[in-house]
Amino acid sequence: MSESVHTNTSIWSKGMMAVIAAQFLSAFGDNALLFATLALMKQQFYPDWSQPVLQMVFVGAYILFAPFVGQIADSFAKGRVMMMTNGLKLIGAASICLGVNPFIGYLLVGIGAAGYSPAKYGILGELTTGDKLVKANGLMEASTIAAILLGSVAGGVLADWHVIAALVACAIAYGGAVVANLFIPKLAAARPGQSWRFRPMTNSFFSACKTLWHNGEARFSLLGTSLFWGAGVTLRFLLVLWVPVALGITDNATPTYLNAMVAVGIVVGAGAAAKLVTLKTVARCMPAGVLIGVVVAIFALQHAILPAYALLFVIGICGGFFVVPLNALLQDIGKHSVGAGNAIAVQNLGENSAMLVMLGIYSLAVMVGIPVIGVGIGFGVLFALAIIGLWLWGHRR
After folding, report:
1. Nearest to residue 23, comparing CAs of 68, 102, 89?
2. CA distances from 320 to 38, 172, 265, 277, 388 (A)
3. CA distances to 17, 108, 133, 136, 365 from 7, in Å
4. How far apart are CA 364 and CA 332, in angstroms?
5. Which among 63, 98, 113, 361 is most buried, taking Cβ atoms within 10 Å?
6. What are the domain boundaries of the chain?
7. Which of the four pLDDT bands, split at 50, 70 and 90, describes residue 48?
């Protein structure tokens, strides 16, 4: 509890391991809870159209609370902020277990997740320094992807057995995250003494937005990560329609397995980025971003399962290699300007806005009748062109 981060900046310190453990359990709960709650809604005969609305409630919480969560993360010890926000997730999951409307419970979880995000990333720059920050981000992303894989499977399997048992397991995971947070050293607040009145808080957030978006390197990072996560959530939905058309498989499991292949690839790519990229060589990640789009376009043309798995694994590797250095760059810039918590809050606003926009464009393309294979090819080509444009702009700058 009293470990000095000034004398131990190793990524294997007790504080860092507590952060990684808390992140795994929290992300495990998030992903298991989604599938468990969807199973509950199906059991209670909610209409099918209400399922994506559940995810929109979660994403909407990130956007709605973006002006406030960064200041909260920077005004208090980040480990304690993580503990409180995981506690809010625990309350949300427990309320669903007790029969509260699932949209209300899931909204509480979304608010907790919105507050948790800037604290969990912002604390990395306080527990370690310099080039170790990229490695710390690699560990964070690897633990997150592992939690996504295991949490998704656990949520679905447990829900098939007993829905309430699945929801209880989610609450237990959040409880474990709260306990793990207790082992994070209590660090000094990064930016204490800020005003808590509504107008100054929103002004502070939008001032942070202005500062970061006017900083060339920060804008470079924000655009890159927003494009990546917007593309990631779009690919997830694209797979659901692509599998029956391209492979002739109509089950629900195959898209899940294909998504899992991307996640495994991200772990590998994140590990490679931690070894090969530093804050001074962030531009090395850009070819991987271009390859994401190219490989997605090639993937859309496949009609066999094994090449599809292989290509999605490659997409995941490129994704991990692309996004981890950009995250580290933004954290470093934020730490020395608007505060790391504010920087991640601004990033969350950009990423979640990109998710909504890209999903909207994807939905419109499907609505007007564009074949799903054509959508996949167009999506990959446009993404590659966007990253090439960002790369050229960054090089000129």
Report:
1. 89
2. 28, 29, 7, 12, 18
3. 16, 38, 16, 17, 54
4. 37
5. 113
6. 11-184, 215-397
7. low
Longest dimension (CA), the chain: 60
Structure tokens at 266: 């991200």
pLDDT tens track for 102-128:
999 999 999 998 888 777 777 777 777
Chain centroid to Cα 294, Å, comes to 23
Nearest residue to 79 via CA among 106, 49, 116: 116
Q: Length of the chain in residues, anyone? A: 397
Query: What distance in Å separates the CA atoms of residue 124 and residue 60, rounded to the nearest whole number?
Result: 26
Comparing 11-184 with 215-397, is the CATH topology the same?
yes
CATH architecture assigned to 215-397? Up-down Bundle (1.20)
Q: Are 279 and 224 in contact (CB under 8 A)?
A: no
282 φψ region: left (φ > 0), alpha (ψ -120 to 50), beta (else): alpha
H runs (alpha helix) in 214-304: 216-242, 253-276, 286-300
Q: What token pair was written down for 312?
A: 């999605």
d(CA 31, CA 350): 22
Q: How many other CB atoms are there within 10 angstroms of residue 264's CB atom?
A: 18
Confidence of residue 367 (pLDDT cuts 50, 70, 90): confident
HSE at residue 15, side-chain half, CA atoms within 13 A, is: 26
Contact 204, 194 (CB under 8 A): yes
81 within 8 A of 64, measured Cβ to Cβ: no
pTM for the predicted model, two decimal places: 0.71
Helix (H) or strand (E) holding 58: helix 50-64
Can you tell me the distance from the alpha carbon of 112 to that of 85, in angstroms, rounded to the nearest whole number? 5
Taking each helix axis as running N to C, give the angle between helix 340-367 and helix 198-213, from 0 to 180 degrees, rounded to the nearest 10: 80
CATH of domain 11-184: 1.20.1250.20
Tracing tokens 């990959």 back to the chain, one arrives at 380
- Report d(CA 66, CA 88) in Å as an integer: 17
